[in-house]
Protein 1
Amino acid sequence: MLGKICKSIRRLYCSESNCLSRRNQIANDQSLHSQNLAAKWVICDACIEENKACNCDHRVGDLKCAEIPPAEPNGSFAHAVINMIGMLIGLGQLSTPYALENGGWASVFLLIGLGVICAYTSHLLGKCLDRNPKSRSYSDIGQEAFGTKGRVLAATFIYMEIFMALVSYTISLHDNITTVFLGTKLMLSWAKLSTSQLLTMIAVLIALPSLWLRDLSSISFLSSGGILMSFVIFMSVVLTAAFGGVKSNHRIPGLQLQNIPAISGLYIFSYAGHIVFPDLYKSMKDPSKFTKVSIVSFTLVTALYTALAFMGAKLFGPQVGSQITLSMPPHLIFTKIALWATVLTPMTKYALEFAPFAIQLEHNLPDTMSSRMKMIIRGIVGSLVVLVVLALALSVPYFEHVLGLTGSLVSVSICVILPCVFYVKISWSQISRPLLLLNIALIAFGSFLGVTGTISTSKLLIKTLLRAHSK
């Protein structure tokens, strides 16, 4: 979900003049699978208006940044589809079999329905960008709708999703690294930590130096590893079903209505990608095809999630884990590959997810401060944030509850509620009555899912914590 968002959030707290103090053109942005975004990195320390010449003295090669024209949008339809699919597929795919098993096969209609709704709200974001060509990010749309309050609201939800997604990634790392190193014993006399906790700490410490990277092109390269790992995990499950000797004869319950609020957050999180869609829209040579891109991308992703959900539920039944990798037969080579892919994925995410915080942090530091000192402060703050994430993940190591809470508390607002609210506000004078009613209904539906899902998941999390502490 959530590793895909560095580029989108660079402008979160800039004023209406669209501060370009960190305008970066990513070189071969592999995290979006797009060769069309290839350009040199440009760093300007002066905050200037978008259509004015750069007045900084920085040079890239033999050219001043003022002499380097901005990259023209030239993304094709096919590239845009690949980009959007890459944005959507991530951590959520691990939990769809668990969600289907607990919600019943009828809950697949909720999964498909949310895919349709999120495709529609993606279309709404494109319409909002149509109305104001100066808007370039999710938070810009928020500002267009409600001014500074709208920008702050959008930014708050975005940062919340980043933080909670990082916690979920770390829990996933903890769960899978335990299985990878099954039988390993680590003991520290002064630390009252289990072997799995120590292994997780070691993995996070190995990834920690990446937070000191200042070249965001290197950070973006890391994210491409995470996307590759997601593909490896999916193929490992497919190969296990085909050649793993596991019989897919488990019966999936019809509908378990009492579990729907809790699993709705897992389904919603699987479609979390809207905060980067404005960047995808702006990168397209023909933005009028953005709606078609959304339809094709969400159709393919929904089909993938549905297939994976039924595959996992039929293979493992009630024993299916909150992460499909933990249910796969441990002796299979496919399982070992999937486990390692799941372990490596979070380690590629920390630097990318922290990048928006780092960019804003450096922007707020005094201009008189040296680059070296800024890098040190950036690294220290980033390390502290990740250590807080690590502590929280080890204290609350319940993947399905944390991921579900993230979906219900944050993702539903970003993917369903806010796009509808922003669109209605921006298009109020021109919106038809049927379309207005549709958006109001979606706002109500999203709010209902968010409230009931948050309450249900919070209760389950509290019960699990109390049960764990009572042992």
Protein 2
Amino acid sequence: MLDRTHTSKRLIGETPPEFRGAGRDLRIDACRGIALWWIFLDHVPNNIGSWLTPRNYGFCDAAEIFMFISGVTCALAYGRTRQRDGWSGMIGRSLRRGWDIYAAFLLLTLACAVLVYLTGSDDLADDSNTRILFEQPGASLAHAAILQYRPVNTDVLPVFVIFHVLFAPLLWLLLRAPNVTLGLSLALYALVHVFGWSVPAWPNSVWFFNPLAWQLLIVLGAWCVIEGEKFRPWVMSRPALVLAILYLVFSLVLALSWGIKPLVPQALTDLVFPLDKSNLSPLRLLHFLALAVVALRLIPQDWRGLSSPVLRCARCCGENSLPIYCLGVLLALAGHLTLLDISAGLAMQILLSLAGILMMIAVARLLHAINNKRSRQPQRTQMDETVSPTFSSCQADGTLWPGTRTTSH
């Protein structure tokens, strides 16, 4: 264990302070939970609840927020695992997480197909991209197994499978040459827009979230964790805040002009819209960066509002992001069916939006309680084993011996 630690220090240099921190930034889980709510609201077609999301007030939506935060959390989690268990432990953890997301994607694909089949709705089968699964089940399942076929709204999960599996080499590069790694990511992003590079998909050869483009947000999130202290003064400066606000106002005017009434010349809106979400349009990327600058400036890490009931619910959803995202996809599919077959009125849209978010919160709290119960059992076992000084895992100064794990929530 000591040899492994000394070797990594010689190769990498000083460990990023974020990897050594024992605390948890509550803003991360809160933002991820709110993004999950926004994604659900946006996934229900023609839903009045989508006006509560950023989609109608600028260029980007919750997808950019969710992707960036995933890069941040991956860097924090896997970076601390590397410090504790070495590279082999970190690689094992990333591969297990990739497998979990892969299994969740396959199960969600089957769940969507079962839901559509039970409803017997042809319109829902077309809108959810599951009709081909019923017409060509063998080919569809085979292509789903290699991440080429995806029902509607499940597109992001295959992207996360790829990123988790490949995060170990990415972290290795970021720890040694963070700026060079970010530069390579930007170069790949630019080449995608210049040459139209994409990843093969089936049956229409369109991967909605092109991983060659969206990788930039994952890399950027991880880079911010490793190089955060160096660029934080610039991000928190007044010029950066002013530029961010000006860009947000510009995007707001254009978005409202596109969706409500012409506030600017039609030629300008036609030039900007529709934005290319599949390849992460530069305007969308800049809009997200502007939102991030404003959020960092206005919401400090110790903000009291993070303990409010609403944000506690958001944090609970953010801590269980994978099951809650899958639940949101199924709820959006059920909400779409309700609007098609029962009523598409305003009251029904509001009811579906509230019911869906409340159900996500209820399931997240249940999962949180189950996880807490499981985590207490090892603690009790460890306390029983450490009653005798002979088996104590602490040094004289109270710190843990190398390799001893602590339970965190």
Protein 3
Amino acid sequence: MSESKFREVLPKQGMLAVEDVTAMVMCKPKLLPLKSVTLEKLEKMQHEAQEIIQQQEQAAPQCSTSALDQ
């Protein structure tokens, strides 16, 4: 192995100045959901409410026709 061409030199007198340079660290990107959990719950509740309304609307004409027949 070859030795490095430079060797470390520390001053024997005076102050030693060291520059601490912060570098940006690249990290793995975080995937965010397109819809939040709360939004998904609200959409599910709205869909269920619409289904209930449709069922009631379908049941209403059947009840009115059977009442007229009597």
Protein 4
Amino acid sequence: MFLFNNVTFTTTVVSIIPCIFWTKSLASQPHILLLLVDDLGWSDVGYHGSQIKTPNVDRLAREGVILENYYVQQYCTPTRGSLMTGRYPIHTGLQHRAILSLTPFGLPLEFSILPEKLKEVGYKTHLVGKWHLGHYTSVSTPTHRGFDSFFGFYNYGHDHFNHTHDGFLDLFEGEKVARGYKGQYTSHLYVQEVERIVEEHNSSKPLFLYMAFENVHDPIQAPEKYLNKYSFIKDRDRRTYAAMMDVVDEAIGNITQAFREKGLWNDTLVIFSSDNGGDPFYRGFNYPLRGYKKTLWEGGVKACGFVHGQMLKRKGVISRDLIHVTDWYPTLVNLAGATLDSNPMPVDGFDVWETISSGTPSPRTELLHNIDFPEKRPGLLLTYDTWYSGAAIRVGDMKLLMHVPNATWYQVPEEGGIAPDMEEIWDQKTNIVELALYNITADPTERYDVSHKYPNIVRHLKDRIHEHWKTAVPPGIVPDDIMALAVAIKNKAWVSWRDTCNAK
């Protein structure tokens, strides 16, 4: 069983079972099921030793390739932008805070994104769940960006039962506001939609289904029957968070069963990922990793991830090769037989299929976590949400952090930990670590700063950050647009507003 020791990070690699090659009896283009869980903590899945029950996730992970050196971005939107484009956030303008409901910015239209590339080679493409890549004009919404269908919401989070964000409805079917679902738990609605899509799918066509869960993002809400399973957790919010992850696991079981019943399963490639680390204030935990969502410490950017599918040449193994969320774009585009788009700038990701499937060394030896330094811009105020994450880069074993908000380690409440309050989080934000160097392979929990021992490595990694910085585009954060609120009031929903009000 894949149970990891949360203190020493030691694991026993399961022996590789005899290779099962992706034969011609399987489809030449795999169906792709991309499962993205929102704000999932590193220590909040069963195969990492959690007391939260995730049997479906654990089974898929155990049967596939677990990615134990896999990284995403520190926020929801930067990760989703990198996933869709294969570019670092500094190259899409998404290096900073999440896109909010009043912000007139989204994923740059000049980038071809993953569903658009897959459609070029015959895929049917569907998004169920969270978009969070802009909706200020209709052309920035999912069905104008390569998805044949969309059932979900635009913003960073909403009430799981009423489907409202800041008082207005945020649930859509295509571009149409989805009314009449009040009181139904969002994740359950998503499963129903996925089951419908799979049942109606023409099996002769390749399928790309992007299931972007809202769970376990705040607000912390779950149906009562799931809460009852975690009565042993005394912290009420943590108990609810556990129930929310239980819902995700059940949903994944139901979704995969739908693929089996349709006869698609043996030709389906499953990718499982979190979009960033857990937020301990909302009861997502990353122990023994340092830090949390919003930070460039390992707890903010090291993600739970695995790949499952009959086309894998090896199964039941743990991969420790360096992989980043930008790598999915070129990997999946190449698997599908599409052509990579290098405009308006080259892809930052690598094709890591052979690394995952066959165990060949990763082509990635360097990883830019992010560059996001404080800046003064008209109309912007420094608030709790204006969280500048600083810069961090990893080359080989070594990771350099520069001007990052400090962060500590949080053990889960059911094992004696205490969740932080907002004042504690704020204090860490304003306590800046100007420079630190860690050997992540030897010290994955970032406890021993070795910058004083290796000045040459510090100098080299600082140079690499500055080289990347030369290629950065300006951050897309802009002042809020009051017209968004005016249109939301009129429609009682967060619809696209620039088209509606003819704003320039």
